[in-house]
């Protein structure tokens, strides 16, 4: 479905493994666990295929790399700074655009702490070098790039960073990142930084420097994300921004009381500004009292809650998946990713994977199947699988000077 022009390229095939870089055995891009397809009728499956073919499909948050098969090698794998994109898996994903969040805080090429400027630039440049050597995935810098990718059987890759620690106190680093192709950035990850507070901090909000950074991102055309920011920083950012903002991967705290999910007032404030909240599926996040075992049903309960709260025009999906053992990676990186702080104190049933939402190749076909099965209209499905995101991007990424409205125009 939504067939892509994939020619069999594998990451870094222009180099010689073992000579130009250390070779690791990586996972296959098919499922590691029993495959699950949301059950639909033959007619419904035909409708699913048509919806994916006719509409722009965007994931607002993923990590599309292939993990090592042996997770004991994961930190060493990260030290080499090469993420291997799952091109084959993406070719069957149904996606026309993916907001890829790179290594982020797990880019530990020069530092065990992550989030350093050199690590982020190294990570970004290496990934874009690989992308430049193939033609199915293109850089997504404008909404026209996304439309062109759709038309040409390609996928637009939007380089995104989950937190802004690496800019330190230098606003111009935002310009540099924009120049390197970054089009979406979070304010803070779990730990606070010079812009604002992360979800580990119970108090504090956007700093004076953070407000300057928000204004600079507005001027540049970088979409702003508050998924990992604490509640006050999220609200402050929404207020400070002249443009709508994203919550690229979260859910509703009203359904599961952890800091990783957003309270109603933050979701409402995001929507009131014209923004969009995307529902995530990283293991053990969007679970609910009705569905304590994390799977597509609990994930979609968060979706429907947010739709009922703020309307269909302000909700989409950012599954936050990867090709590999996601739960195993969380265990390997629990300290670096501050996972204990994000889980809260509520007991939950642990799973090995999220059924129906295991990797970037499986998520959106199953999401659309679920929506079709539950009676959503073609119009509403088109909105939540990409239309709502495109609406925000048309406003956020817009550069008035390119449209003849800048101070140089007459």
Key attributes of the depicted protein:
alpha/beta; six-stranded parallel β-sheet; 14 helices; three-stranded parallel β-sheet; single chain; 410 residues
3D structure, described in words:
With 410 residues, the chain is an alpha/beta fold. 35% of the residues lie in helices and 10% in strands. It has helices at residues 42-54, 74-79, 87-91, 117-131, 143-151, 172-179, 208-220, 231-240, 264-272, 296-310, 326-332, 339-343, 363-373, 378-396, and strands at residues 58-62, 97-100, 137-139, 155-161, 182-186, 223-225, 246-250, 276-279, 315-317. Strands 1, 2, 3, 4, 5 and 6 form a 6-stranded parallel beta sheet that branches. Helix 6 (172-179) links the parallel strand 4 (155-161) and strand 5. Helix 1 (42-54) packs across helix 13 and helix 8 runs parallel beside helix 9 (264-272). Mean pLDDT is 93; it is low at 404-410. It comes from Paenibacillus planticolens. InterPro entries: Dipep_AS (IPR000180), Metal_Hydrolase (IPR032466), Pept_M19 (IPR008257). Pfam families: Peptidase_M19 (PF01244).
């Amino acid at each position: 479905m939504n067939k892509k022009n994939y020619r069999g390229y594998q990451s870094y095939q222009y180099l010689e493994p073992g000579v130009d870089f250390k070779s690791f055995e990586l996972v296959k891009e098919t499922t590691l666990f029993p495959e699950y397809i949301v059950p639909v009728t033959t007619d419904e499956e035909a409708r699913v295929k048509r919806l994916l073919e006719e509409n722009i499909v965007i994931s607002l948050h993923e990590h599309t790399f292939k993990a090592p098969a042996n997770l004991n090698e994961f930190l060493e794998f990260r030290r080499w700074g090469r993420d291997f994109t799952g091109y084959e898996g993406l070719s069957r994903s149904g996606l026309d655009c993916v907001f890829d969040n790179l290594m982020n805080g797990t880019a530990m090429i020069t530092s065990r702490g992550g989030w350093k400027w050199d690590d982020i630039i190294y990570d970004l440049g290496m990934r874009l070098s690989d992308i430049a050597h193939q033609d199915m995935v293109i850089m997504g810098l404008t909404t026209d790039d996304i439309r062109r990718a759709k038309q040409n059987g390609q996928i637009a890759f939007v380089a995104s960073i989950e937190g802004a620690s690496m800019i330190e106190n230098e606003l111009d680093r935002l310009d540099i990142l924009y120049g390197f192709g970054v089009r979406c950035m979070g304010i803070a990850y779990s730990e606070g930084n010079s812009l604002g507070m992360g979800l580990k901090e119970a108090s504090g909000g956007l700093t004076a420097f953070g407000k300057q950074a928000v204004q600079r991102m507005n001027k540049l055309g970088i979409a702003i994300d508050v998924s990992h920011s604490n509640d006050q920083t999220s609200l402050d950012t929404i207020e400070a921004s002249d443009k709508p903002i994203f919550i690229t991967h979260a859910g509703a705290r009203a359904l599961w009381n952890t800091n990783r999910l957003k309270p109603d007032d933050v979701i409402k404030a995001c929507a009131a500004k014209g923004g969009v909240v995307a529902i995530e599926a990283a293991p053990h996040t969007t679970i609910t009292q009705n569905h304590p075992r994390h799977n597509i049903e609990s994930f979609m309960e968060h979706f429907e809650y947010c739709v009922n709260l703020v309307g269909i025009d302000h909700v989409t999906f950012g599954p936050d998946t990867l090709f590999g053992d996601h739960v195993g990676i969380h265990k390997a990186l629990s300290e670096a990713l501050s996972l204990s702080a994000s889980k809260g104190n509520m007991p939950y049933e642990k799973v090995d994977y999220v059924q129906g939402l295991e990797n970037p190749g499986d998520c959106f076909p199953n999401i659309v199947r679920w929506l079709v099965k539950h009676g959503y209209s073609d119009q509403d499905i088109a909105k939540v699988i990409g239309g709502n995101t495109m609406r925000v991007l048309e406003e956020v990424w817009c550069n008035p000077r390119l449209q003849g409205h800048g101070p140089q125009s007459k």
